[in-house]
Structures are given as structure tokens and as C-alpha cells.
Amino acid sequence: MKLQLWDTAGQERFRTIGTMYYRGAHGTMIVYDITDAKSFQAVEHWYHEVKKHMHLDVPILLVGNKADLADLREVTTSEGKALAARLDMHFLETSAKTAAGVQEAFWVIASQIKSVMENERFDRMHRPPLDHVPRSTPILLGEKRSSRSSCC
Predict the structure, then answer these.
(1) What is the mean pLDDT of the chain?
(2) Does any domain span residue 16?
């Protein structure tokens, strides 16, 4: 499995191009800073933004970062776990500085993506063949593309 990561750091200037990346994504990590309650409050905004543009089954992992700065903590672990549970996400705390939990976060999101992809493949394999679909059922095969291309 190849993981391609896009870190927008929640910046406003990435908001418009972010939707382009959401559409093709198979998984998402929403990361907040445990020493900054404001970043935690933004999690729900980003969650709804991701859900608006991505497939329903795409796994989302909530990550509380900077666990190495526990003495400056503004967001408790239980608050992070509660939000993740309410929004149906997995939850981890990490420290990018010490690398604590970082590898685990990537393993969690990768295994969730793999599981979703295997389930989708299983569903496709067990659908009835098209010749068994009742005639009244519309089948959408995608847009017709012009045979003339404006590209090289």
C-alpha cells in the first residue's frame, strides 16, 4: 500500500484546493494540538468538511499531537476519546517531536483503509451480474467522454 500525505495545517488558503484532495482520498487523519484548545475546537469543522467531500466509508483517524508537552495540555485524553467516539473515529495521541505513537497512527489508518478496500472488493465480487438486474433499474456507467481530446 502506498500512502500519500497532504498536510494543510488547517490553513485557510488550502481550503479550496483541499476539496480536490478529499475526493480521491481513501482515508484521513484530523490532527489537533493537545496544548491548544482552539485547534481541538476546529476538529468538528474539519470532520464535517471531510465528510462533505469524501465517500461515506472513508476512515477518519483523530490524532492529538504534542503528547510530549503534557504539562502544557489544554485538551485531555478523555475529551479527545469522547469526541472521536461521538464522531465514530478512532483516536490516538502522538508526539511528532519524540515519534511516540506516530508509526501506530499510520498503521491504524492504513489498516482501516485496507479493510474498507477489501470490503468494497468483496461487495463488487458478490453483486449480481448486470444481466440479472431488472430492466427498470437505471445503471450509471459514468460520463461519456469526447473522442477528441484537448490534451496531448
Answers:
(1) 79
(2) yes
